[in-house]
Amino acid sequence: MRQVDHFIVGGGGGSAARTHQIWNPSTGEVQAEVPLGDAALLQKAVDAAKKVQPAWAATNPQKRARVMFEFKRLVEANKQELAELLASEHGKVVDDAHGDVQRGLEVIEFACGIPQALKGEYTQGAGPGIDVYSMRQPLGIGAGITPFNFPAMIPMWMFGMAIAVGNAFILKPSERDPSVPVRLAELFVEAGAPEGLLQVVHGDKEMVDAILDHEDIAAVSFVGSSDIAHYVYKRGVAAGKRVQAMGGAKNHGIVMPDADLDQVVNDLAGAAFGSAGERCMALPVVVPVGHDTADKLREKLIPAINGLRVGVSNDPDAHYGPVVTPEHKARVEGWIDTAEKEGAEVVIDGRGFSLQGHEDGFFVGPTLLDRVTTDMESYQEEIFGPVLQIVRAKDFEEAVRLPSEHQYGNGVAIFTRNGHAAREFAHRVNVGMVGINVPIPVPVSYHSFGGWKRSGFGDTDQYGMEGLKFWTKAKKVTQRWPDGGGDGSNAFVIPTMG
Ligand code: NAD
């Protein structure tokens, strides 16, 4: 069976006491194994990182950027291979896997501009003869702990920024689809980065705890589910680290009576069901405003959802593929059971879905639930599957209140032709990322990504200038250069080279 190894200087050292199986979700077969590392293995990575980081920090930013440019070229040259590998372990369709790689690359493109972004600030004459300037310096060694659902994009969000500003980086990717993160680290070395600058250690809670407790790791960026994000945040901060921890989501799409319903249905097909709903910026809750809007929307949604094609990850015509593991399939179907018991109407039922020829794959059919109410647990919790819930709101005020009062606050969208309603909504809603007629409002790489409430712990966002801030510390210099005359004449003396 294929073995995925740690990517650390000196190698992972062969057989591990504990391993984790990697599925092929399309076939339901175990295709590889990954070792689960421990504190001793992490120590080897930290030792190697410590050796290379000071010289990397002292390398001028333009030269650091050249490595980023070359890495971008190599990832582009290997994109098809990366996308296929990613799709085979995650289950998302290859086209979608290309998007996963591409959105990570956009952060690398931002990192290529690091000389400009790192320039700092300067005030001349802040007092008599006094100038003030600030610079941002790297932290040393940073670590990233990433979820299964974007195995290319989220690692690149983190290491792209952390390394460009002068840190070494240790990545602990999801043990469910760890191969692409390792390939990215190999390409990074091929791009000219010194060995040890970007290393990948595999593991579960044991490795995460070792990272959080390690005194030489200055900062930890985490993306995953909320309970674990909160745990990582508390434990990392208690250990004196800088921590940002992004959590789960339950994003709402508000549909105003004046919205273009055909466009909304088209957007929802992608945003609720794409990637089998396993996106933190998916749109699993739709909130039509007024019963008339709800009925019309439901009528249009039914044929659109029934028309979705579920297929294996390398089926070029499939709209979406299997979910990631058999446990996750059972969990998603369990939430549909719960919703039904709680009184939601199961309009389209994706439970028990079987794909001909791939009966062992972890497929869940597209599901539509109507008459979902806020007291239902299936509304309050994240399902993370191809399930769309309709929550009917009586008016605009209720539509603003629903996402604002939800425990998660990652993304939200409003569909309307009314600029005033859109503006009011964007200003008032208690959610971190807002789309106006944009179903998945992921900010571009030169802005920053981050949710509110239980979707994000810590106070800096991912990538862009917020990412730069997270991975650096600011030094402020106040300088005064007294007149150098020395003979009391106050003469301005230009030093000579002798
Ligand atoms: P997860 O929380 O199970 O795992 C995330 C990481 O934590 C993995 O590296 C995993 O190995 C590690 N981990 C697992 N159990 C742990 C434990 N008990 N202690 C310490 N570490 C542990 O998340 P997942 O299932 O891989 O990813 C899906 C979740 O991530 C969803 O909730 C989704 O909304 C969220 N997500 C959020 C964002 C965002 O930016 N807000 C982006 C993508 C995914």
Task: Name the overall outline.
Answer: globular
The CATH class of the largest domain is Alpha Beta
Hetero groups: nicotinamide-adenine-dinucleotide
Q: Helical segment tally?
A: 16
The CATH topology of the largest domain corresponds to Aldehyde Dehydrogenase, Chain A, domain 1
**What is the CATH superfamily classification of the largest domain?**
Aldehyde Dehydrogenase, Chain A, domain 1
What is the total number of structural domains? 2
Percentage of β-strand residues: 15-25%
Counting helices, strands and paired strands, the structural category is: alpha/beta
Oligomer: single chain
Give helix % range. Answer: 25-40%
Strand order of the largest sheet: 13-14-15-12-11-17-18
Counted beta strands: 21
Task: Give structural attributes.
39% helix, 16 helices, Aldehyde Dehydrogenase, Chain A, domain 1, 498 residues, alpha/beta, 7-stranded mixed β-sheet, 6-stranded mixed β-sheet, binds nicotinamide-adenine-dinucleotide, globular, 2 domains, 20% strand, Aldehyde Dehydrogenase, Chain A, domain 2
